[in-house]
């Protein structure tokens, strides 16, 4: 579990640093570029469409893990804006709350106990 937590922290910090540089160089115009690349039907758009599918799956998992409660649905929708950093920070927090039990981390306490 320690290695997993170190990986989550390392990836989050690396992506945050990369994001800061991109924002400084290109501004906050992510959405027109992201969806414009998809509309252009090239490899950057294919990658973005692939990533959008991953965000959808991650968001559905988060909402499901919280039994589609209002907070869980909001958290699931937040993945579209928060992306991997949101999911990595969420997993890090849950790894401590669950004392490293991957069943609880992935399923939630109620489902893991069943």
Explain what the structure shows.
The chain has 114 residues and is mainly α. Helix content is 86%, strand content 0%. The relative contact order is 0.11. The model has no long low-confidence stretch (mean pLDDT 96).
DSSP summary, beta strand count: 0
Indicate the proportion of strand residues.
under 5%
Distance between the termini: 23 Å
Mean pLDDT: 96
Uncertain segments of ≥5 residues (pLDDT<50)? Answer: none
Structural class determined from secondary elements: mainly alpha
Q: Count up the helices.
A: 6
Main β-sheet description? none
What is the C-alpha radius of gyration, as a whole number of Å?
A: 16 Å
- Write down the secondary-structure element order: HHHHHH
Indicate the percent of residues in helices: over 70%
Envelope shape = globular
Distinctive features:
about 85% helix, about 110 residues, 6 helices
Task: Describe the secondary-structure layout.
Layout: H1 2-26, H2 30-40, H3 43-65, H4 70-97, H5 102-107, H6 109-113
Helix pairs in contact: 1-4, 2-3, 3-4
Compact overview of the structure:
The chain is mainly α and about 110 residues long. The chain is about 85% helix and about 0% strand. The protein starts with a helix and ends with a helix.
């Amino acid at each position: 579990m320690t290695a997993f937590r170190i990986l989550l922290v390392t990836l989050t910090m690396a992506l945050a640093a990369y994001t800061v540089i991109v924002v400084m160089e290109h501004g906050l115009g992510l959405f027109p570029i992201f969806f414009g690349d998809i509309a252009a039907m090239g490899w950057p758009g294919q990658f973005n469409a692939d990533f959008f599918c991953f965000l959808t799956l991650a968001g559905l998992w988060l909402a499901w893990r919280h039994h589609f409660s209002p907070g869980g649905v909001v958290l699931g929708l937040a993945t579209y804006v928060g992306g991997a950093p949101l999911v990595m920070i969420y997993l890090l927090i849950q790894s401590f709350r669950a004392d490293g039990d991957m069943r609880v981390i992935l399923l939630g306490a109620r489902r893991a106990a069943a």
